[in-house]
From TrEMBL:
Organism: Polytolypa hystricis (strain UAMH7299)
InterPro entries according to UniProt: Cyclin-like_sf, Cyclin/Ssn8
Protein's recorded name: Cyclin domain-containing protein
Source organism superkingdom: Eukaryota
Coiled-coil residues: none
Swiss-Prot/TrEMBL GO biological process terms: regulation of transcription by RNA polymerase II
A GO molecular-function annotation: cyclin-dependent protein serine/threonine kinase regulator activity
SUPFAM superfamilies, A to Z: Cyclin-like
């Protein structure tokens, strides 16, 4: 990934056109729509796990960006080789380790064992059946032997992420930048700021990989532009986004992409209704076999 020079702390490594057009998963025969579904579900898994671990939102957001970067390009990770759930756990563990609030491997693995339980998980893309009021603890209990094995897997996944990203784990987020821009525009209402943050958080799950293709300042400007229209806050009449180094074409693309997140999430929910999204290598392979059999039967 190429890094834009200058103010490095406020910029991110961006994916190249080659990386966007050719992922390692696609080269291994994983269809683009399946890859997008797995990435989306695993990113949601990362978010929920971070909440249960009581990690700050910025740490969770950085974990999701690291997770997304891992799969980019032909040199990135492949769903045919690496389990999305393992990379999700390792990304969260790594992001927390790099923050002021690191968490232990045991805490991470206990939370993921619970969330990946087919009977107790509150996530519908893992447990399509309604969760009972008192799920059996045995379904999400991590034994000492299981913990040691999972800890080894977590450590290996963390090393794989670091090696794949060339140890570049820097992530600049647009949230703080957006608040500065709102103050500059004289439009720092709580309702507007809340809606801006909602769009920025939603963009973390974008199938267009917005955090890999655009710098934080452009994401902040697009979120402000869209949120202001939705909340009904009037900004300055001039083309204010140009002051923040964003052109109209880029702004338009990001606004459309952010606006489409709600429909994308709804389509994904309908697509996988009463089915489990494959988050392991074995599950992905079985899904590919099912698709192949279905195509041959037509």
């Amino acid at each position: 990934m190429a890094v834009i020079s200058g103010l490095d702390t406020l910029s991110n490594p961006l994916a190249t056109l080659t990386q966007l057009a050719n992922s390692s998963s696609s080269l291994d025969g994983v269809p683009a729509d399946l890859e997008a579904s797995v990435r989306y579900a695993a990113a949601k898994l990362t978010q929920v796990a971070g909440v249960l671990l009581r990690l700050p939102q910025d740490t969770i957001a950085k974990a999701i960006v690291i997770f997304t970067r891992f799969w980019a390009g032909p040199e990135g990770g492949s769903l045919a080789i690496h389990s999305a759930k393992d990379i999700s756990a390792a990304s969260l563990y790594l992001a927390a380790k790099l923050s002021f609030l690191p968490t232990s491997p045991r805490s991470v693995l206990n939370v993921y064992t619970f969330l990946l339980s087919r009977e107790a998980s509150p996530l519908d893309f893992i447990n399509p059946q309604p969760v009972s009021d008192k799920p059996n603890p045995e379904t999400y209990y991590l034994s000492e032997g299981g913990y040691q094995a999972e800890r080894l897997t977590l450590t290996k996944a963390e090393s794989t992420i670091l090696r794949t990203l060339a140890f570049n784990t820097h992530v600049a987020l647009p949230h703080t930048i957006s608040l500065t821009y709102l103050q500059t525009l004289g439009a720092s209402s709580s309702a507007l700021a809340k809606r801006v943050f909602e769009h920025l958080n939603g963009a973390l799950f974008s199938p267009q990989l917005l955090y890999l293709t655009h710098q934080p300042n452009t994401l902040a400007v697009a979120a402000i532009y869209l949120a202001a229209r939705e909340v009904g806050v009037k900004l300055v009449d001039d083309e204010w986004w140009e002051v923040f180094d964003v052109d109209r074409e880029e702004l338009g693309f990001l606004v459309v992409a952010m606006r489409s997140m709600e429909s994308f999430a709804r389509v994904e929910k309908e697509k996988w209704e009463r089915r489990t999204v494959p988050l392991t290598v074995d599950q992905v392979q079985r899904q590919l076999e099912v698709r192949k059999q279905s195509e041959e039967g037509e």
